[in-house]
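hey so i finally got around to running the thing on that chain from the lab meeting. sorry it took forever, my laptop kept dying and i had to restart like 3 times. anyway pasting the input first so we r on the same page abt which one it is
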Amino acid sequence: MGAFPDPAEFGFIAPLEVQFEELLEELKQLGEDEFVDAPDSLSVAKDGYDERGWKYYTLFGGGAESAAHRRRCPQAARACSMVPGLVNAGFSLFRPGTRLYPHKGELVGTLRCHLPLVLPRGDFGIRSGDETRRWELGRCLVFDDTREHTAWNLGDGDRVVLLVTFRA
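ok and heres what got predicted. didnt touch it at all, straight out
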């Protein structure tokens, strides 16, 4: 399997993409203050990386808070619950200037799916292994979380994806 598996290989992708507009509407109902620092983010900027603008709104994988968030975002909750092998899910926000340190997940067989809901103009993307991609609104991108990867938003506005981690 390559760094970016073909989304068509996963049966949940097409039904997820069809819900783009509804998921975007739910996202728009959330206030910026409802997003918290991403669980894996570092609070310092150094070596050209800055994770302080990485925020997260958890839907699955975060205890009681997740249950409350699922009630607030029922469409997203239903969409994520249809993913076979779901590990966790939520809205992942990168403010302009966010650049993640290269890192890799430790759960073998775990993939991540990003459904982009908001994209800025300018330089943004994700690199996994030696391959680099740009997100496209409403089009899922799947990558192998166990390969070294990094992502950035050097554009003119926020980048928000529905992030779904699942076992392949």
